[in-house]
Amino acid sequence: MDGQMSFGSTTGHIAFPGAHVETGGTLNVTVPDGRKHHTTPPLEDELKFLGTPVTATTARPLFVVPFEHNTDIIDRPDVFAKLEGLLPPIVDYQSAALWGLGGSGKTQIALEFAYRRFRETNCSVYWVHADNEATFTQDYEALARKAGLTDKFQGKELLRGVREWIEAQPSWLLIVDNADDLGIFGVGKRTATAQAPANETCLDDYIPRSPVGTILWTSRDERIVGSLVSARRGVSVGRMAADEALALFETSRNEHVAIHEKDAVSGLLAQLDYLPLAVSQAAAVLVKAQRREKKMEDFAEIRARSASST
């Protein structure tokens, strides 16, 4: 993960808030071999991949995200306004990327976007870690188990099967988090005329694209804009505003900054360049130090009482 700040509880799990899977009919669609956008066929059509039928169960929208909702997130109105402008809740294919330094808050922003979008539109939401090929594949394998594809496919066929399964959903959002190594998605490795070697895996081949989906990337690499998303579909995530950083510091410490502390805290936040991860870590260190100091005071008091009673 993008070394994110502790904005709140982020215990890892697969969450299904307000949604659950109910088995219904069988969704059968024809999967093209190419990567062109295609219209999702009706339910009675047959979905075939490499000549093997792949079925997707009709269900209530899935919410497969490895983090709990962070209700203590600090609002960053400029960033969220830009992101909502690029990815409005419409039935269309669209993509965008959050990019910036590690610790700037990209993953937390994407997480909040995922929860908001699910709440507002009730579309299916999927989260994939893209730190490297292994984490990407592991998350796709987990989705394959949900789709019932593990008995049908393995390796690249399984990745492609998951891609087509997502594309067959009536509405979906895919978060591709920590895509810092753009090379695994083919950036800088292919030319207009060169074909990728048969044994080379380009993960971009397994990113779903359909008329009704939304993809949000997060990356430290600015080159993601103009490569994996178009040149005008990037949102730079930098340091916080001073008031946002102060709010994060107070939330992380679970205590308001006292009047006599304001100058010192303001100086500290400026030294940390208002980066969310650094701010929350500094607050955590102070909380730990205060607890240790309180324990030492309590211990000294206990010793004093013990000595006076003898």
From TrEMBL:
<protein>
    <recommendedName>
        <fullName>ORC1/DEAH AAA+ ATPase domain-containing protein</fullName>
    </recommendedName>
</protein>
<dbReference type="InterPro" id="IPR027417">
    <property type="entry name" value="P-loop_NTPase"/>
</dbReference>
<dbReference type="GO" id="GO:0016887">
    <property type="term" value="F:ATP hydrolysis activity"/>
</dbReference>
<dbReference type="InterPro" id="IPR049945">
    <property type="entry name" value="AAA_22"/>
</dbReference>
<feature type="domain" description="ORC1/DEAH AAA+ ATPase">
    <location>
        <begin position="95"/>
        <end position="183"/>
    </location>
</feature>
<dbReference type="Pfam" id="PF13401">
    <property type="entry name" value="AAA_22"/>
</dbReference>
